[in-house]
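Database export, one record per block. Field names are fixed; values are copied verbatim from the stored entry.
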Amino acid sequence: MSKPRTRHAAKQALGRDHGYLRRILVYARPYAAWLVLGLVLLILQVISVNAMPLLIKEAIDSFLRPEVTSELTTLERFEGLKSICLILAGLVGGMFLFRVSHAYLMTWVGQCVLRDLRLSVFEKVLSLPMRRFDQVRVGRLMTRATSDLDAMQELVRNGIIGMLANLLLLVGAMVFMWILEWRLALVTYTAFPVLAGLLVWVNVNSRRAQREARSATSALNSLTQETLSGLFTLRMLNQRGRIHAKLTEQSDTLRAARATVADWSTWHFPILDGTRSLANVLLILACGLFIPDQIGSLVAFLYYIRFFFRPLEELAEQSQQLQSGLASAERVFALLDEPEPLRDPPLPHALNDLRGDIQFDQVHFSYDGKNPVLHAVNFEILPGQSAAIVGATGAGKSTILSLLCRFYDVNSGAVRLDDVDVRNYSQRELRRHLGVVQQDPMLFSGTLADNLRLGRPDITRAEMIEAAKYVNAHAFIEKLPAGYDTDLGEGGNRLSTGQKQLIALARVLLQDPKVLLLLDEATASVDSETESLIQDALGKLMQNRTSIAIAHRLSTVMNADTILVMRHGRLIEQGTHAELLEQDGYYRTLVEVMRHGMAV
């Protein structure tokens, strides 16, 4: 039973590999004309290389054999050899030109194909639903977009293009062998099935080892990324020893996997050397039996055996790149094939003259489809109103904002904006009208001005300064070493949390969200002085806009037009600050906690 299963698995793997190669060729389709030119150059190279042994045979049989040289004068022999040498020189020059031109052209095509594939991967990652990032470590996605694509680059450049070139050289040698002497060719061919069987056996096992090595690399990358991101926490909790043990264990797994890959790769050259020696032995025996008087044919065949095995040696190396590249292609195309559940409707509803009326109608939602996060949530925020959402951690506050931004779709019920289900809007247009400021806003490497232009690349320096003044950010920006042209470093790490908040508010203002301003604990991690600046800026931004604020501070929510009180995924109370205090319910308990400066 095990052998049929193994054969079936091998056939399935072979079918998948062919599928990956076909898909890579789809990316090469725009460069078909250049590929045809490359094929012509390759054929010319094959012809020029394999014509040389024929000329060498002619030189030996016509001008160098003792029985022939006795019948020719020295001048005749010299003239004959000179003509052959001139032709050989021309073939060498042509072979050099064809080979270099082919290499340059195919390298260019390969890089273009990889660029297009890389852009497809990046576009896919950017379009993945947020649920995907909840389920998979960022390090694994980084591996797909970096090292896996690097391995596929070697697959395209050396694995596919290089293997095609060497296969044509190999076939050319076999064809010219047959043309020269079919009996010697048949005898030499008998060594090839042995070679093919051994190489297939090595490649199957090598592919399995490559796949395991890629998985181990991905796991180590993910663990390393997670460790570096949480280095402060790990040190504070004295977890250096434990994380070192985990890294050691994963490194040992990767070492063992790569050692297995190296073990299988060492088989290729002994197999090639042994088979080449076998072919030489068979050739000499056959030559002695069939054509003992044709020394030129024996020498030519020795060259052809060399021409046959030289591409095989390169194919052995390229086979390793092919196995590694196919293992990476399997992972890259698995990413590209992931479904996109959050699709735009065929005919999106227009987003013009929005009023800003927000409705949650019997909304049920779960991130994993098993554990509910929101239960039958109903509320309405009228145009121009300011709303605050309060509740303990895990109550579903941020989930409400995520559903409104359509980072996720509801399991049942509907989220409506101006009486239109948000699923009927274009995601791009929907989010263009949403201004979002988070507790820890993301700034990107580059200048402060680059970060302000993120939502609108066309803004002028004057508009930038005006927005910064409006949100109370201009004063501290002027004190930076280069003002608006200061490089903020990775993640904006040269700014404090409060300064990041002000920059994020200026960025939102420049984006000019017509209707909505969504605030996710925007003042939760700043000092009182900075909070005052942020609250002043928020007050300006919230004018004439529907706004929703998530906050743990009483000062942030007590002046809201309506307050939504969440508990265990349910909306249990709604009203103004005064109305909810009069009810003496859960909100009153939260207010007492806020007054004592405790987190809720």
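Remark 1: The beta strands are 358-366, 372-381, 386-391, 412-417, 420-421, 434-437, 516-520, 546-550, 562-567, 570-575.
Remark 2: The CA atoms of residues 78 and 288 lie 30 Å apart.
End of record.
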